UniProtKB/TrEMBL annotation:
Pfam families: CMD. SUPFAM superfamilies: AhpD-like. This is Peroxidase-related enzyme. Keywords: Oxidoreductase, Peroxidase.
Length: 181
């Protein structure tokens, strides 16, 4: 049971109602995470803005889902793991083997694996990566822009992981549980 109220679109007012209506229109659903975030409309607006801006960047949607999967696994966030397993399979068209590999920082796509290797280093070091991590990312073909976007993707997903874990957001996706580390 969520520790904060999940604001329902039909009872929301003002900016909260407008933001939730936008989520529903864009996604066709209003995930519980957004209903929790909109306890502060500024938080939902910030999340949508950050996520939307990254969607216009160099990293593809499947690669952004892969980052979300490895970060959720690393942080033990079952809400995000459930959401991104579903989105990864149904929107980004990643197969089950790829999703499982992505959760562990691996990919059948060499460029995606380079992103995930770097993303894993970023999340494990809480940003304090080594020079060798940057060199390896560049050697694997990542541009400086892709490196910065990977860091941003990790940060965005750390935010959603922490929010959903702190709030204990009710999972409204087919449930996927993280592996115990």
């Amino acid at each position: 049971m969520s520790r904060l109220p999940l604001i329902q679109p039909d009872t929301a007012t003002g900016k909260a109602a407008d933001l939730l209506a936008g989520v529903q229109k864009a996604l066709g659903v209003t995930p519980n995470m957004t209903k929790a975030m909109v306890n502060s409309p500024a938080v939902l607006e910030a999340y949508l803005g950050f996520s939307g801006a990254l969607a216009g960047g160099a990293l593809s949607a499947p690669t952004r889902e892969r980052i979300a999967l490895v970060v959720a696994e690393e942080n033990g966030c079952d809400y995000c793991l459930s959401a991104h397993s579903y989105i990864g399979a149904n929107i980004a068209k990643l197969d089950a083997d790829e999703i499982e590999a992505n959760r562990h920082g691996r990919s059948s796509d060499p460029k995606a694996e380079a992103v995930l290797t770097f993303a894993t280093a970023v999340v494990r070091a809480r940003g304090g990566v080594e020079e060798s991590d940057l060199k390896a990312a560049r050697a694997a073909g990542l541009t400086d822009g892709e490196i910065v976007e990977t860091i941003a993707g990790v940060a965005l997903n750390v935010f959603t992981n922490y929010l959903n874990k702190a709030v204990d957001t009710d999972i409204d996706w087919p449930v996927v549980r993280h592996h115990q580390h």
